[in-house]
């Protein structure tokens, strides 16, 4: 069992931020010219993609959890015949 669940949105956002840092580091080192306005579509696109990936991963986890709970709840005994509410 893994220590924590996989979060693809964080992975995507981290990659986009790292790419932005590399672009501006190359510009600062005079390796290439990076216009200042490149960061806006790069970060907005990365945030949108990370949000979409996080939403999809959440839906997958929720459906798996619901499916496993539904199969575990069916013990074969109706709830009304067990406990203090049983008809005598």
UniProtKB/TrEMBL annotation:
Biased composition (Polar residues): 77-88
Taxonomy, superkingdom: Bacteria
Membrane spanning stretches: 38-58
Keyword list, A-Z: Membrane, Transmembrane, Transmembrane helix
Keyword Membrane found: yes
Region of interest (Disordered), residue spans: 66-88
Protein name, entry field: DUF2530 domain-containing protein
Lineage of the species this protein comes from: Bacteria, Bacillati, Actinomycetota, Actinomycetes, Kitasatosporales
């Amino acid at each position: 069992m893994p220590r924590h669940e996989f979060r693809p949105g964080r992975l995507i956002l981290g990659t986009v931020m790292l790419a932005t840092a590399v672009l501006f580091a190359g510009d600062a080192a005079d390796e290439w010219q990076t216009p200042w306005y490149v960061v806006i579509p790069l970060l907005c696109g990365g945030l949108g993609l990370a949000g979409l990936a996080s939403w999809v991963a959440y839906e997958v986890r929720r459906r798996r959890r619901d499916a496993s709970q539904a199969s575990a709840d069916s013990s074969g005994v109706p709830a009304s015949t067990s406990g203090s509410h049983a008809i005598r």
